[in-house]
């Protein structure tokens, strides 16, 4: 005889009620009330926000030269940190980074050499999740906590994350951070964005391309903060803003030889 | 049996001690929880509009399933709108919809959860601004 959990609980409740143990002691559960309520009305449904930003393949262009202007990168990082309640830990071992500064040789290791021109050598590059076409992090995640949306965004579901950090090992870009400490300890109440949750100790987080903002019809926080340096758009549409820029300007992508298909382009 | 008296007395004390929780509370019923609905946001609403996203009965028994569906719809499907059985639209968000009205976790959520002995961990991430001191 097979019995699923629901059936088992029902029977235990029935037997205990017969024995006077109060199988239905929980006054909130009126038998039949729920079924009646369900039958009475039309079934609820879910819908997209009609203003939501849509693309077949979201891509981000980072204008590196614009980023070198004083304050631009800090403005972008600050906007991202605020929008997502990203904690600030001083110890680099505990850092949580969604978008962050790196040198040329750390960003484009395979292209750097000893005799590089001083101009590029001195540049700082913004690193973030590349929202790969074939994301290795999604492939290795045992719980599907990180997943690829149909619009190309690699999103992260903290409810499902078990903190195994396979994704961190798989990501060739170092775009993921693990919450070693309770992130709430390092947050200041006055800086909190009340619309966005915090995370909990033991989950991995990263840039989510502001998927929740796009779904609500807003642009990503970094694009909103510095539209001159960060440009997002649909890579699948040949007439989109990003494709028009990419046709005119030289761009670089990180570690193309790995075949992950990064969706972040550095305009140089 | 050696020391029968001592052993039997000891056993009786042991059994009394073991069943202490039962006879101590015999005949008493723990009063059912009364979650409070008097948050500023709810009080501001006109009486006729003081309704949750679904009926009280449904929310009492099914809010956990609803929230679980909400989480998946919003996060994984990008469905940010919930049209309820009466055709009214709500934003699919625990923090921005539920907790805007029910900002009194201690007097609302915790009341029944403590009674039922369940410990959901929603609030380890989701929060109401201005209540940082209550953070778990």
Structure description:
Chain A is elongated, with a radius of gyration of 24 Å. In chain A, the strands form four sheets. Chain A has a four-stranded mixed β-sheet. In chain A, strands 3-4 form a two-stranded antiparallel sheet. In chain A, 28% of the residues lie in helices and 15% in strands. The model of chain A has no long low-confidence stretch (mean pLDDT 89). By secondary structure, chain A is an alpha+beta fold. The relative contact order of chain A is 0.20. Chain A has two domains: 5-40, no CATH class; 58-267, Alpha-Beta Plaits (2-Layer Sandwich). With 136 residues, chain B is mainly α. Chain B has a domain at 4-53 and 93-134. Helix content of chain B is 46%, strand content 4%. Chain B has six helices and two strands, in the order ααααββαα. Chain B has helices at residues 4-18, 20-24, 40-44, 56-76, 94-101, 109-116; strands at 81-83, 89-91. In chain B, strands 1-2 form a two-stranded antiparallel sheet. Chain B is elongated. The chains are: A alpha+beta (268), B mainly alpha (136). At the A-B interface, helix 2, strand 1 and helix 9 of A face helix 4 and strand 1 of B. Strand 1 (45-47) of chain A pairs antiparallel with strand 1 (81-83) of chain B, so a sheet runs across the interface.
Largest interface between protein chains, with number of residues from each side: A-B, 40 and 40 residues
Poorly predicted runs of 5 or more residues of chain A: none
Please identify the structural class of chain A as seen in this structure: alpha+beta
CATH architecture of the largest domain in chain A: 2-Layer Sandwich
Q: What level of helicity do the residues of chain A show?
A: 25-40%
Uncertain parts of chain B:
none
Strand order of the largest sheet of chain B: 1-2
For the termini of chain B, the CA-CA separation is 56 Å
Distance between the termini of chain A: 68 Å
Specify the number of helices of chain A. Answer: 11
Major pleated sheet of chain B? 2 strands, antiparallel
Question: By helix and strand content of chain B, what is the structural category?
Answer: mainly alpha
- Rounded mean pLDDT of chain A is 89
Mean of all residue-level pLDDT scores of chain B: 90
Count of structural domains of chain A: 2
| Overall shape of chain B | elongated
Q: How is the largest sheet of chain A built, in terms of strand order?
A: 9-2-11-10
Query: What order do the SSEs of chain B take from the amino end to the carboxyl end, as H and E?
Result: HHHHEEHH
